[in-house]
Design goal:
Shape: globular
Function: Regulates expression of the glpD operon. In the presence of glycerol 3-phosphate (G3P) causes antitermination of transcription of glpD at the inverted repeat of the leader region to enhance its transcription. Binds and stabilizes glpD leader mRNA.
Structural class: alpha/beta
Radius of gyration: 15 Å
InterPro entries: Aldolase_TIM, GlpP
Keywords: Glycerol metabolism, RNA-binding, Transcription, Transcription regulation
Order of helices and strands: HEHEEHEEHEHEHEHEHEH
Protein name: Glycerol uptake operon antiterminator regulatory protein
Number of domains: 1
């Protein structure tokens, strides 16, 4: 548990804002770290200014920015012009560019089947992200396996619906849980 508490100042939940209403709640919350899931490229500068003004460290899911292709050039733009706390992506080029620019890189890994996992492990070996987000995050033994195999801290996301799901993921070794479930935001604030 001590190892996990050093991540994100001990924050166990990374609230993910899917819209401006959720982002506004996050701004008013006690959370320091959060995630933008779905936004438009034209909104990025203003929402990051708002976040910084409220001392929020916001990750950006680069694959979900509308109006911006999710490639290494977009990642370079995001890192230089928007300067998010970190980038989340499934794309190797995005992860590598974020790391080159000194931005925290989170590689998403979908637990679909063994073949997909092996491809993800090969990609992770190439990109060496700062964190791996496993989806769905409700499979505790897979959180343990991914960390054991890569040595990279794991975030659990996707299909986490209850406080028991959060606790199971954390007990399995997740550094934090990513969720857009506002009930969980309140329970773990």
């Amino acid at each position: 548990m001590e190892q996990k508490m050093k991540h994100f100042g001990g924050q166990r939940i990374l609230p993910a804002a899917k819209n401006m209403k959720q982002f506004e709640r996050l701004l008013d919350s006690t959370y320091t770290y959060g995630i933008f899931l779905d936004t438009h490229v034209a909104q990025l500068r203003s929402i990051y200014e708002l976040a910084r003004g409220r001392n929020k460290q916001m990750f950006l899911h680069a694959d979900l920015v509308q109006g911006l292709k999710n490639d290494e050039y977009a990642a370079e733009y995001l890192c230089q012009e928007i300067r998010p706390y970190g980038l989340i992506s499934t794309r190797a080029g995005v992860i590598q560019r974020a790391r080159q620019k000194g931005i925290i890189a989170i590689q998403r890994m979908f637990l679909l089947d063994t073949i997909a996992m092996e491809k993800s492990y090969a990609l992770i070996e190439k990109t060496r992200p700062d964190y791996i987000e496993v989806l769905p995050g409700v499979i505790p033994h897979m959180i343990e396996e991914v960390y054991a195999r890569t040595g990279i801290p794991v975030l659990a996301g996707g299909l986490i619906r209850t406080s028991a799901d959060v606790e199971a993921a954390l007990n399995a070794g997740a550094a934090a849980v990513t969720t857009s479930n506002k009930e969980l935001f309140r329970q773990f604030a």
